[in-house]
Amino acid sequence: QVQLVESGGGLVQPGGSLRLSCVASGSTLDYYAIAWFRQAPGKESEGVSCMGPSSDGSIYYADSVKGRFAASRDSAKNMVYLQMNSLKPDDTAVYYCAADPTIATMMCESPGRYHYWGQGTQVTVSS
To answer: SS3 for 89?
Structure first.
């Protein structure tokens, strides 16, 4: 059983930056595929960044965030991060980290494929 807890959301002006954190307990994340999803009101859930188990090393980014967002792992702390730069109002959403031990690809699978989810953290980009 894995528990995921996100933090780091907040209100930021357009062009600003935030770093989201997701800490895991119950198991090491090295053996899990990790995804960052976001859900905006009235929109479908979007996988913004995904990575396979840490032996893979590759990271996927949605076109909407490519070049602005960067995901990473810290195995020693059992945490994953999503650095978000050059934020836009369209980035406003609740952001979730998700994990699953059976996904081997770096690509974002459908949300239903991820077994473990954090509680979400609100990111609001507004002037």
So the answer is: helix
The pLDDT value recorded for residue 54 is 77
DSSP string of 6-37, one letter each residue: EE--EEE-TT--EEEEEEEESS-GGGSEEEEE
Its sign, for the CA torsion 110, 40, 19, 26, is negative
Residue 14 and residue 103: Cα distance in Å, rounded? 34
User: Which tens digit of pLDDT belongs to each residue from 21-56?
Assistant: 999 999 999 999 999 999 999 999 999 999 998 766
Length of the chain in terms of residues written = 127
Query: pLDDT band at residue 106, thresholds of 50, 70 and 90?
Result: confident
- Give me the phi and psi of 99, to 5 degrees please: -145, 150
